[in-house]
Amino acid sequence: MKDIIDIVGAHVELQKKEQDIVHLTVHQFAESLGNAIDAKDACTSSHSEDVAVISQAIGVQMGLTSDRCKALHIAGHLHDIGKIGIPDSILKKKGSLTDEEYEVVKLHPVTGAEIVGPVTVFSGDNGIAKMILHHHERFDGKGYPAGLKGNDIPFGSRIIAVADTLSAMMQDRPYRKAIAFEHVLGEIKWCSGTQLDPTVVKAFMKISDKVGKYLSDMRTLNEDDLIAHIKTV
Ligand SMILES: [Fe+2]
Ligand SMILES: [Fe+2]
Q1: 179 CA to middle of ligand 1, Å?
Q2: Where is the HD-GYP domain positioned along the sequence (predicted)?
């Protein structure tokens, strides 16, 4: 009897190891693709990585399961992958975009969801493909591509939207300089209930000092420390 228990135990252990390896590989591919899109746009180096880490941190703070937090991290790496379809003349344009050019930029969530479409583990209503597709929806329904409103927007997309807004404001763009973290916090609060989900903003504010530390030049907290810190508070 003990032999059977040992064999079953060893099998479960092996399955877990295999799952961990699959997850690690998916994560590494997501990170590589995120790096590719960040490399295309010099203004946004480390943007995808930051969105991955901050989204996961918010998920942990909100008490989501470990699997959903890992999915948020992967979706963060991949959220802007559709920008690969935007011509450099638009993506890197200095100065404001024309209406036509902005329409091209607005296609990137749809393109991104199509790019990851063949990956079946990314499918489903709360899957990574849907998080990518809806990361530019606004809580008040004025976003794109579908104009979804409130809780109709996938939860993961609402979390990514907060991390994305934060990271984007803190980086130089062709049309403006980076905004300091303290001012960005004010902007995020200002956007609560209009652009961003208030419950997600509230959760983010509770960990904002740790996220600020993570994003600071010193990076006094690394990614794992940040997540561990949030789990213990
Ligand atoms: Fe990562
Ligand atoms: Fe985006």
Answers
A1: 24
A2: 22-220
DSSP class of 182: H
Record: fold of 2-232: Hypothetical protein af1432 (1.10.3210)
80 Cα: distance to centroid of ligand 2 (angstroms): 5
pLDDT digits (tens, 9 = 90+) for 129-174: 999 999 999 999 999 999 999 999 999 999 999 999 999 998 877 6
Entry field: residues in the chain: 233
Across 66-98, b (16+ Cβ under 10 Å) vs e yields eebbbbbbbbbbbbbbbbeebeeeebeeeeeee
Tell me the backbone φ, ψ of residue 22, rounded to 5 degrees: -60, -45
C-alpha distance from residue 99 to each of 80, 96, 102, 106, 207 (Å): 20, 9, 5, 11, 37
